[in-house]
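#data-curation
PF: Archiving a pair of folding outputs for the training set. Convention for this channel: one message per protein, sequence first, structure tokens after, nothing in between. First:
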Amino acid sequence: MKALVYHGPGKKAWEEKPRPKIQDDTDAIVRVVKTTICGTDLHIMKGDVPTVEDGRTLGHEGIGIIDEAGKAVKNFKKGDHVLISCITSCWRCDSCKKGMYSHCEYGGWVLGNKIDGTQAEYVRIPFADTSLYHAPKGVNEDALVMLSDIFPTGFECGVLNGQVKPGDTVAIVGAGPIGLAALLTAKFYSPSEIIVIDIDEQRLKAAKKLGATQTIKSGNGKAVDKVMELTDNRGVDVAIEAVGMPATFEICESIVAPGGHIANIGVFGEPVDLHLEKLWSQNITITTRLVDTVTTPMLLKSVEAGTLHPEQLITHHFRLNDIVKAYDTFSRAKEEKALKVVLENR
């Protein structure tokens, strides 16, 4: 089979690899129908995720068809249409019993990280019964593939950790796919204001279209002043960091109101200054999280009911064998006006 293979920082190739085989009775082999590229994949390509080794097939998102199921798999059979979760969970270990699937002792974020992932024609899914979801019939496949990662991530790490409440003023720093997923799911809780901050005019236009009440172009050093102006110098109740850069985290530190929440989503590859000299007395809560995907069933129901439309974030479609071109497009998001790219293997 063909797969997108990582060969160290800045090096990748679409190349031949052995088709995956059942290794444990709880495994399933899935023929990938659609997958996508995550911002985390770009961090991997920069060398920010040292657990990813040379030779790894990248990717942790996708939908597909069960090609083979291990003898212990009870919930799925050959031919089933499935959504692949970015998090592998055994449901038996102490972390899983706490609902902290991202820290499963036997799984967690392993696809495209510690084991071969979904940017391939076939992928092996460990603990298939608890790491796959049946795809609802008739639901847009493009919407479904967005539920592998970015929507549960934006919702859990940003909105739920930020404890967004009705009437809150929310700022989202970063209008990439994760930030926009946080925007759409923050609307579940009816905040009074959603301010989106980014350096890209096109992404800010997308944020406005999706429901941002205010947008601010950053990069000129005045984003904090503009937020304070919009909030009568009070700041925001919830500041969601959705980029993974020291400068964007510092914006969150500067705009959060007393008693507020800073909810970090971004993947950081370098240290960040924590300004406790300013925050220590302000009753600020700072949260971090790797997505647990505990909300995936609820998000699936929202998509099935037509109340959530994740496919709105998709800007480009490619054939799976054009994945190197898709990476180039996604990595030059500003020039290409790209949000999410979908790769199809038919």
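PF: Second:
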Amino acid sequence: MACLSAKILYAEDMIPAQDTSGKIICGDTFEIAENLPKGFVDLLILDPPYNLSKNYNGHLFKEKDKADYQEWFQRALMLLTRALKPTASVYVCSDWKTSTLISPVLERHFHVRNRITWEREKGRGAKSNWKNNTEDVWFCTVSDNYYFDVDSVKLKRKVLAPYKVNGEPKDWREERSGNYRLTHPSNIWTDVTVPFWSMPENTDHPTQKPEKLIAKFVLASSREGDFVLDPFLGSGTTAVVSRKLDRNFCGIEINEEYCCWSLKRLEMAASEPAIQGYADGVFWERNSLADQRGAEPQPSRQEKLAL
């Protein structure tokens, strides 16, 4: 850990408007945001503590009154907004309870484009309520001028009833491992798996987001070389995905051990660039690893543009 901590940029060592590309910054986002350069972020991925009491490796976040949480969230948002480009996009993660609190705050400051709901698959059972196994993500933009690449986030699905016109496949493709269609992504995501113990990306962070989830935000709302900021980095998923997808990035995290986990994962990304559930330039349904291995490669983005 000492070897990794030497690579961390600590808040007290920062200077105003310094280059933060590729940096993991250890410290309080509320303090660090004031020293970030203005107007340099293309994509903000915001995964703050939800309004729940939870222990983050010794840093306890206590549930607040609804109005107090909204004030806390708005204060963070105002500090971070100054770092955004006019063309920037913002994704904000929440659970169903917190979602109702942050929605009106986001409406005041951004153009709210959509609310994505993704199935966590995991979740504790409840005897007197419905099991909670979904989370929300709010998709926002700073202005009406923003980037969105729908082709990069299409989902590859098996066609159960292949339909042909004049003997030719209608909106699907026959491959070695079956018949497939690339479908436009909706705002209901059932193809994401929470990291479990056998996945290389798994850590002990209590609210770790899947690389596949973050990859969808990054691919849809940024170009290669764009700058991605995550001010509540946790175990480093946004930084790792950004590196794997050739984006510049900066992550802020208050817990030093989590910062070290992020750096370790960034080192691993050099030799393990794959993102589980994303292969050959497309996203796949859950439990389709065998199909992925037998699939024919999709044309690259450059090849598609040349067609």
